[in-house]
Structures are given as structure tokens and as C-alpha cells.
Amino acid sequence: MLKLFVPKMKVDSIYEIDLAALLDQGFRGIITDLDNTLVGAREPEATPQLLEWLKVLDKHGFRVVIVSNNRQPRVERFAKPLGMPFVYKAKKPLRTSFKKALQLLDLPPEQVVVIGDQMMTDVFGGNRMGLFTILVQPIAPQDEGFGTRINRTLERVLLTFMNQ
Ligand SMILES: [Mg+2]
């Protein structure tokens, strides 16, 4: 049970992910969280660094979809200008939004990675769908809401249990 909370890969930020290696392993699609994964939780728009990264993803031929537990205005305002498909109020770790994201990507689960900054939602949700999960460090943890701070406390308890 606990291993469902353990990411397959851990990096400091999305910019450290070895995209060529993912391609080599047969991955073609990315389901990514938004808040504190792509930008800080209170950043309304993509940063120049993120725009560059998205270009690189595109060059590599990756399909990308944003799956966020946040509300429609936040997610839409961020994703629309980028022309990225998105799922809002995703209720991660429930499976529904991951299934929807796989449909949007039109890829089989074994070709898709999940990127996110939370073990309780992104990693747990991705793992229980059998997807390859990548955990990043939260960009701006000081800006997190109440629910997320509770999840962080649970994360710390889990990590202590798992001795990591
Ligand atoms: Mg997040």
C-alpha cells in the first residue's frame, strides 16, 4: 500500500527531467500538475523558462495535458494562452481525471508519465493508474492552500514511515 505513494523518479524541478531518456523508454505523453509543478501556486501565467521547456517538449514530440485539482478560472487562464489541453477540478488521486487525460492524449498508459509535486494526489493517483510517476519539489510551498498543507503533513508522516 505505502509503495503506491512512492514516485518512480524524484527530481528538484521539471527542468531536471531527462526528456531524451524518457523518449528512449518509450514515453510519448505527459500528464502534468499545474500549481507548484509548472509554476508557483500564485503565478497566473507561464514563465519564460517554462515556455522554453514546453517548446523542447514539443520538439521531442511529447503530448502534454494539464490535470489540476484547482478551479476552472485558474487552470483555464493558465492553459488556454498556451494552447494546452487541461482538466480542472480533477479530484486527484481519483482515477476519473487520469482516464480523461489519457483520452485527451490518445496514448496507452504505458507511454505516459505523470509529473507533480504532491505524493497524496499526483503520485498516488498516477501510481494507482499504473502510470510512471515523477515527483518534483514544490516551487512555492509557502503559497499553498489549507488542503495542500494537510497533505504535506501526511507526506511527512509517510516519509518517516518509509524511512526516506
Ligand atoms: Mg501541485
Automatic annotation (TrEMBL):
Pfam families: Hydrolase (PF00702). One of its GO terms (cellular component) is cytoplasm. GO terms for molecular function: phosphatidylglycerophosphatase activity. It comes from the Bacteria. CDD domains: HAD_BsYqeG-like. InterPro entries: HAD-like_sf, HAD-SF_hydro_IA, HAD-SF_hydro_IIIA, HAD_sf, PGPP1/Gep4. PANTHER family: 4-NITROPHENYLPHOSPHATASE-RELATED, PHOSPHATIDYLGLYCEROPHOSPHATASE GEP4, MITOCHONDRIAL. NCBIfam families: HAD-SF-IA-v1, HAD-SF-IIIA, YqeG_hyp_ppase. This is YqeG family HAD IIIA-type phosphatase. The lineage of its organism: Bacteria, Bacillati, Bacillota, Bacilli, Bacillales.
